[in-house]
Amino acid sequence: MSAGPPAAPVGARLPRLEDPRLVSGRGCFVDDLQLPGMLHLDILRSPHAHARIHAIDAAAARALPGVAAVYTGTGLAQFLRVLPSAGGMEGFNAPEHHALAIERVRFVGEGVAAVLATDRYVARDARELIRVSYEVLPAVADPEAALAPDAPLLHEALGTNRAFEMRIGSDVREALERAAHVVRGRFVNQRIVPNTMETRGAVAHFEPWDERLTVWLSTQAPHLMRREFARFLAFPEHRLRVIAPDVGGAFGAKNNPYAEELLAAALALKHRAPVKWIEERQEHMLVTSHARAQTVELHAGVREDGTLLALHYRLVADMGAYYHAITHIGPMMTAALMTGAYRIPYAATDIVSVFTNTTPTDPYRGFGRAEAAYFIERTMDLIARELGLDAVELRRRNLIRRDEFPFATPTGHVHESGDFQLCLERALERFDYEGARREQARLRATGRCIGIGLTTHAWRAGFPSVPGGKGYVISGWEKTSVSIDPGGTVRAVIGTSPHGQGIVTTTAQIVAGELRIAPRDVRIIHGDTDAVTQGNGTMGSRSLVVGGSATLLAARQLRDKAVRLAAHLLRVPAERVTLEAGVFSDCGDPARRVTLAAVAAHAFAGPQDLPEGLEPGLEATAFFEAPNFTSCFGTHACVVEVEPQTGEVRILRYVAVDDIGRAINPMIVEGQLHGGLAQGIGQALMEEASYDAAGQPLAASFLDYATPRATDLPRFEVELTETPSTVNPLGARGIGEAGTVAAPPAVVNAVLDALAPLGVRHLDMPLTPHKVWRAIREADA
Amino acid sequence: MIPAAFEYLRPRSLEEAVACLLQREPGTAAILAGGMSLIPAMKLRLARPATLVDIVRLRGLAGIVRSAEHLRIGALTTHAALGGAPELARYPVFAETAGVVADPQIRHRGTLGGSLAYAHPAADWPAVFLALQGEAQLFGPQGRRSVPAEDFFTGIFETTIGAGEILTEIRFPSVRERSGAAYSRMCLQASGMALVGVAAQIMLDAEGRIDHASIGVTGVNAVPFRARSLEMRLRGVLPAAAALRDLCATGIPEAEPLSDPHAAADYRLQMLRIHAERALGRAFERARAAVPGLGYSAPVTRDGEPVVRP
Ligand SMILES: Cc1cc2nc3c(=O)[nH]c(=O)nc-3n(C[C@H](O)[C@H](O)[C@H](O)COP(=O)(O)OP(=O)(O)OC[C@H]3O[C@@H](n4cnc5c(N)ncnc54)[C@H](O)[C@@H]3O)c2cc1C
Question: Nearest chain A Cα to B192, which residue?
């Protein structure tokens, strides 16, 4: 153990412990794994959005040297179950979903045949030799169109394209009638692709000597995958080992047990050989969950003074062709958070969830909450404009005040605590809102097209357990074990599965803070379900607030035990023992000391000299269960310039003030914001996974799907406030999704502010140059 | 991202390379230069040559030579080399164009010859090639021949390069006094290729009027083209901003803009006018400032200029 730990590891801007390895090419990702005798899986995919499969001729593929097997959906059905896709909840329409399509394909990219071969090249060649005869059926890609009575039916057995309908919230009709103004609008939160830098992949390996199946998986939730794989394969869960090695991003799209991954495992068992499947980028864009894809039609009832009385959404949510793990949760989250940071006495959402001939949707950074923030923050600007109020003033009048927490919304969410005004006022000061408005007026007079946009967003992180879920369930607890080895080295085994968030570093900081050692002396173990027996994974900005809390509790328990042991060795009462820099001492006589390492050695040396009732060893495990979501909130403000001649948008300034509750590592918090802002700005300005009317994807590669590059982004000015959360012992709030939650409305509000003098009143994302240019022309005409 | 099987050859001379091409079935062997277009196409199996003839190590095909009459650029000269070559100090349009092609990694491998031979309808160099009135030097079974830029591109991904022929060098007339050239483009958000790209070269007479203009356009039509009508109408014009704007707004009848989900035809046409005006305006500035012997190289952003200007 090295000497001289920093005074306080918690709160330090410690460079990420995981980075030197990752940035110098020493990472190990699924595709880096090579096992002897490994077979390679390749999937033939449907080119049609909707078609009946008449015949599949795989004779030529099977005859190719090196091909071990070719499977079709019908062939697999003889020994495989249906996919463990979410049945959602009681009363939901749940279509059957198979690892490969049986008889019918329902979106471009759906798997039709699988090749297993001795190398990737042969597998790919063989795939080309498979002939499928399709009868193309009418397809429907637009969710509103899918609701029409004569729309093509995706799942005939269901008799409808409706996945489910649900109402969340209070009665609003009477309040809307009473309101002085009713503002109407329609907002689209468009379909986008998560595009993790590492695509998905799996290596599955059955070892007969231990009857053990190991699956290396690019996942964010190894334990949930273990459970789902075990169910799907009817394989005992305690003999199944899922390992998430280094994972190059997930963003919510890697907690679904996907067809190819389950198939790799099933075929490894069947063929008694390791099987590898690595997703190509084009496949990623076609078959990894898409996200967002929600549209609301809204009615907002506003009093004369600009305070909101009632809000109603009709929300159409596009599920895609099937459910993935928690597809159905998205619109419910949106509905729960529809009132944002505001006091709106009456609010309700009528959800209509629809199947379409498109890629299934599922979480993406900000799941449900980004949509909610977009809708309400756009609504606020719409109201401000219709009532002729300043956007800030309108927000000030409606924000939940700091003395009103905990605050229950009409849609069933409880903001546990917060200080929304604090972030707003900090941001306005930093941004110099008044000055920015003056500058805008000055530049407008010179012909420049400048806009200012802001959000006072509120969202939530670190979900609690939800009772009554059916099928795929994610719980709200997390587990950490902290232990000290006989030699004195410290390890923490965590149930979350970090893949870029910096959790290795922040976990080490928390443990180091309790044990008064240096963070780099704590080893963090994660992602291997044989080493980490239970957990839920990393998603929903929960790893620090929930997992970190479990870590804090475990480290404290461990420290308490170590203190008792130290007291025993120093022959003083435990209250007199202090711990600093890895050394216990007697506060009455600091010369009397014993190191943490010596205490550890003693703990394992044998039972002969342990205090009464104390077990040997130095290890503590804690489960922490989130009692409620943490409330997350902030204010973002930006300035944009539009070039009316070309429609190009440039962000000139972006200020983000978010409340972190408690920053374990401010640098990591800022990094989380930067990444999320980049993705949020991408959604605002360029990303869209669009389809034509026949269900053909129009942006299924990076040639057509635009993602932001560094040169598209401004310098971010990030500031943090720290208002402790009341629902976890760290007092921390989630931050991972703040950027994708706030940036889209902030940027769109700014662009529409810029375009207001030109007569443009509405635009849907992404605000591409072409779209902006056309809107300006049409407003001009 | 798994290419089909192919044979790989690395000839040691130009003659041997031509022989390699001729020995294979027509159309089955491809030259490999920087591989920045060909390899991605092969990985997607959009291109599947049975044989790759790698010429990237052939000495003498890369480099820049200036003589009194000509500027000669070897086909294998990389985008990056064109971006930083001291020999090109008087041709700032090269650095300007190289600075917007792809990203630094690709610029260090991709070549000028490869870009022209690939004939992507949204590639940048074809516009410069046309505006600077370059000539492609080809070497093949029948020996050497020279093809003027305007005859070089014959279709989408199609050029005049014949079976067994290799593009060895691109030759431009040497820069003249009172002349200047510039490249202005707007890029597609996703691919980063040109939605429109306009290269313009202007030569001024002693009074500062346009004596001669040549304008190359990429990204707009299926095949890059010279905006001949505009060139004619620019003759004798004093290039004030308003005059350029008016001429660009009406004078490019050769444009038959592509229409796709990224940019409808009317948008492309409008962007063409704007970038023609910008390219001409900058070319004019350079022509005016071009005192022979003095370099001029302005820093440029990804799109050749700040997107938003006061
Ligand atoms: C991500 C990305 C972004 C890009 N962005 C841009 C951009 O913004 N603007 C732009 O203009 N380009 C862009 N490109 C294309 C890039 O400029 C390529 O480098 C260039 O088009 C091809 O040059 P190369 O040397 O790599 O050719 P290769 O890929 O090796 O070859 C291309 C084609 O030309 C043929 N060929 C090559 N050299 C010769 C020769 N000497 N004689 C005969 N035939 C030959 C080959 O057979 C092949 O058919 C981009 C490419 C990528 C991958």
Answer: A703
